[in-house]
Amino acid sequence: MYSTRFQRPVILTRHALKRMAERIISESELLAVVDTGDTRFKDETHLWAFKHLAGRTDNLICAVLVLEDAVAVKTVMHDFTLEA
Description:
Elements: E1 2-3, E2 8-12, H1 14-23, H2 27-36, E3 38-41, E4 46-51, E5 61-67, E6 71-77
Parallel strand pairs: 2-6
Antiparallel strand pairs: 1-2, 3-4, 4-5, 5-6
């Protein structure tokens, strides 16, 4: 996978792949979250990307990302709630 938003490859950790399988989140859905979702940065390299995906009943979908030479997806969540 490649992120057009961040202009670098996307790497999925084993944990992220496991969570995607458990939550039935496809790579194309994940890429939509990464590339077109809203973002909230913790610092320069750590952030959350989140998006409502049509046809899903477990929204908000969220990916925890680390930006380095690639976009590392650490985990993927569903029924995500933003904190104030």
